[in-house]
Amino acid sequence: MMLMMMTTYTSVVNVVVLVLLCLQCVSVASLEFQVGGPKGWVVPPSNDTNIYNNWASHNRFQLGDTLRFRYKKDSVMEVGLEDYKQCNSTHPTFFSNIGNTEFKFRHPGTFYFISGATGHCKKGQKMAIRVMVPDDHDHDKSHGYHLAASPFAGVPGITMILLFLHFVLDYVAFASYM
Ligand SMILES: *[C@@H]1O[C@H](CO)[C@@H](O)[C@H](O)[C@H]1NC(C)=O
Ligand SMILES: *[C@@H]1O[C@H](CO)[C@@H](O)[C@H](O)[C@H]1NC(C)=O
After folding, report:
1. Domains contained in the chain, number
2. Is pLDDT above 90 for 146?
């Protein structure tokens, strides 16, 4: 009897641990990327004007992910393709100059960002980002800002919980025969 109670107790602890793991794997699904890495959102050096698109090409962006722009005396705008090409900052669809801007991808597609500061976009402070619908299999390859890879990524949390409950119930049934 004592043994059975202990077994049940262990099982309950296991379930709690697994539920917590699953909550974690669900929250890992979206990532935050710091644009340009530690340097942030600045005018690129004149010998390396494509830094932002190079940076973007090393990452995979998905619906629900967030960009963080850090800058001083500058701004960030989301614009259309033509305005991106011509560095036209007269009618952005998004504008921020608070120095620490968060931008969340709310739909898939290509997003175009430019600096709103005079001359900066022409010097290469611009970036095009393609955002895909979630595909958890490849998401772990991204160089996310606080990426935590999970062995359960891609398995819906509820499936994991059901699978584990099934396992625990089998185990309890087996243990009570002992
Ligand atoms: C750009 O110039 C700097 C210093 O002049 C150098 O350290 C850096 O490697 C150069 N970058 C590229 C991409 O050529
Ligand atoms: C920017 O776009 C607006 C509206 O499309 C246009 O009137 C203006 O001439 C453009 N400015 C530049 C510098 O291309």
Report:
1. 2
2. no
